[in-house]
Amino acid sequence: MAGLVRRRARRQRVLRWVIVTVLSIVFLLPLVALLEFTTRGPGGTLTWDTWRELFDFQQLSETYPVLWTGMKASFWLVLLSVALTLVLLVPTVVWVRLRLPRLRRLVEFVCLLPLTIPAIVLVVGLAPVYAWVVYFVGGSSLTLTFAYTILALPFAYRAIDTGLSAIDVRTLAEAARSLGAGWATVMWRVVLPNIRSAVLSAAFLTVALVLGEFTIASLLNRDNVQVAINQLGKSSATISFAVSLAALVLAFVLLFLLSFAGGKRRRSRRERTTS
């Protein structure tokens, strides 16, 4: 019986490694092809001129102003979208858990709703709203912050809600309040340190979403890095593919850090339980 269990466990390990290997090849092969294309010089020689040009920001801004404008817009969109998403979600989700638990399902439904609506449909609904935004604020690409915050709600809400589910936030808040702490202190010094990894997860997911979004920015005639990549693909495929590869690698690194943060949270929780 013990030998049968060992053989079954061995087969399962082999099957897992086979699946991981196949998926790794499927994922890495297009990236390797992109890298080979961007480093291919005249006559099939190896050259890194494209990558040197990509990281020489002064030359990049002069040679590809569209790409430089899109990169700057995406940089500020990342910062603003992450800040607005966390400022809206963290206090709301914590307050609902503490004071309005009956509204939890309603808040969850509202936050997850953008996940069920295609981006093209969102654009149809957002276009009249953005007509007023342009009238009052202007037509800057930074106004996409509002649309990206809506798109990020499902992912950020799930990450923050999972982090709050791992702690007894009501007991922590009541203990802090009994010691004379105000609600701002409870939020900043009690709740946030205990859901730091969940907040980082929400931020990383928002960054990955903003860096990869194309449909809304294109249809609303705004600039971001994906729109710039699409425009450059018609004139300079090499630099366009290099930027695409860099964006994919950055998103992969962010998701890897996200999984690392989640594993660290689970390990710390197990250590607290055993102690």
TrEMBL record:
Segments forming domain ABC transmembrane type-1: 71-258
Residue intervals passing through the bilayer: 14-35, 73-94, 106-127, 133-157, 197-219, 239-262
Alphabetical UniProt keywords: Cell inner membrane, Cell membrane, Membrane, Transmembrane, Transmembrane helix, Transport
The keyword Oxidoreductase belongs to this UniProt entry's keyword annotation: no
Protein topology in the membrane: Multi-pass membrane protein
PROSITE patterns cross-referenced by the UniProt entry: ABC_TM1
Matching InterPro entries: MetI-like, MetI-like_sf
Protein location: Cell inner membrane; Cell membrane
Record has Translocase as a keyword: no
PANTHER family named in the record: INNER MEMBRANE ABC TRANSPORTER PERMEASE PROTEIN YDCV (PTHR43357)
Similarity field: Belongs to the binding-protein-dependent transport system permease family.
Name of this protein: ABC transporter permease
Organism of this sequence: Asanoa iriomotensis
Lineage, top ranks: Bacteria, Bacillati, Actinomycetota, Actinomycetes, Micromonosporales
